[in-house]
Design brief:
Elements: H1 2-21, H2 27-54, H3 61-75
Length: 93
């Protein structure tokens, strides 16, 4: 039950962060993209566990690697606390 509680807290915080991350024009695309990635991850996780077991690897090792990679990419995101939300997509040159 504690793991389920932690996951629910994580997704609640994640959805608030995603809402602030994307401009208004593409916010629904951002939520859709994160939903698709979550569904794909849920679908391939049994296969990852089976493959890890077949090569005599601990089944927690692949998710740990994916988590570390996600953490590295998350550290590269810019902070949006206190900044106004943008309404348009800005083109960067």
């Amino acid at each position: 039950m504690l793991a389920r509680f932690v996951l629910c807290c994580f997704w609640s915080i994640f959805n608030v962060y995603v809402a602030e991350l994307y401009p208004t024009e593409v916010r629904s695309i951002g939520f859709g993209w994160t939903s698709v990635v979550g569904m794909v991850g849920s679908a391939i996780s049994p296969f990852v566990k089976t493959i890890a077991g077949s090569v005599n690897m601990n089944s927690w090792f692949p998710p740990a690697i994916f988590g570390i990679i996600a953490w590295i990419f998350t550290c590269c995101l810019s902070e949006t606390f206190g900044l106004p939300l943008k309404d348009t997509i800005e083109e960067r040159i």
